[in-house]
Structure formats: C-alpha cells, structure tokens
Amino acid sequence: MLLRSRSIRSALVAAALCAGLAVSATAHTESPAGGAKPEHYVKYRQSVFNLIRWNFGPMAAVVKGQTPYDSARFATQAARVAALAPMITEGFHPSTKGAKKTEAKDDIYANPAEFNRLAKDLETASANLARVAQGGKLDQIKPAFVATGKACGACHDKFKVDDH
Question: What are 70-92's pLDDT values in tens digits?
Fold first, then answer.
C-alpha cells in the first residue's frame, strides 16, 4: 500500500510539474497586453483533455472487461485524472470565445456558472474515483468510474460541439 501511495504521489507531482511547465511556457509567449494569447489557452486545455483521455480510456477498457485489471495501474490513472480535472477551467479564458480549432461551444462564456459547476462535479467525481481506486476492489471502483464518466459527459453534452 505504501508503494502504491508513493507511485500515486509521484504521478501527481509529475502532473503538477507538467502543468507548471505548460503555464510557464505560456507565460513566456504573452501578448503585449500582458495576458496569454487565446491560442495558448486553447492548446493548454486541449493538452489537459488529451492527458485525461490518455488515462481514462484504459480505465474504461478495464471496467468493460476488455483489459485485465491491474490495481496499481488503475489507481495511478485515476489519481492522474483527479489531478488534471481541476486544471480544465484554467484553459477557458474569456479571450478564447470564438477561437478556432476547438470543440468548445461559446455557451461556456454565456453560462460560466453552469460550466464551472459541471467542471467542479468532475473534480469531485474523479477525486472520489481516485480514493476508491486506492482500495483496489474493482466492484467498488466500477460505480465511481461510471459516476466520473457521467460527470465528464454532462459537461460534453452541454458545452462540447457535437462531433457526430
């Protein structure tokens, strides 16, 4: 259990360092007005979403029975998603409204309170998933995973351009 906790702490530290580097890189490419350029915010949030997808996808395969369950790996991936979820809203600066090369609807900027509430729901659900995954019991993990997926999907349903 101690080793698992250390690996999760290491994953969280690595995620925080990567986020810090991304923010630092963005800060060095500021516009004359002193803020990051809209395209940097978009790249930042897309990077966060890609990292979440990178970790959530393999967990989904486990929950669906398509991949063998490795409790340490699952716990690490759940911890990463929990660490990344709070970073999502940072990439939705008002300057990105109407930005190109994004799947975000402008409704985000018309209804920021709802967007922030849904993002917070994902933070809460993913933190719970990470906590439950520490226990290593797949039968307890599955409902927490489903709840996290629903929290993610609720925001997509409302604020992501339909890609179908």
Answer: 999 999 999 999 999 999 999 99
pTM: 0.79
pLDDT of 24 higher than 50:
no
- Going along the chain from its start, the domains and CATH numbers come out as 2-159 (1.20.120.10)
The contacts of residue 45 (CB under 8 Å, 6+ apart) are 88, 90, 91, 92, 104
pLDDT at 25: 43
Q: From residue 152, how far is each of 43, 99, 121 by CA, in Å?
A: 19, 22, 8
34 dihedral zone (left: phi>0; alpha: psi -120 to 50; beta) = left
C-alpha dihedral, 57 to 144 to 91 to 106, nearest 10°: 90
Calculated CA dihedral for residues 96, 41, 85, 19, nearest 10 degrees: -170
Cβ atoms 121, 151 nearer than 8 A: yes
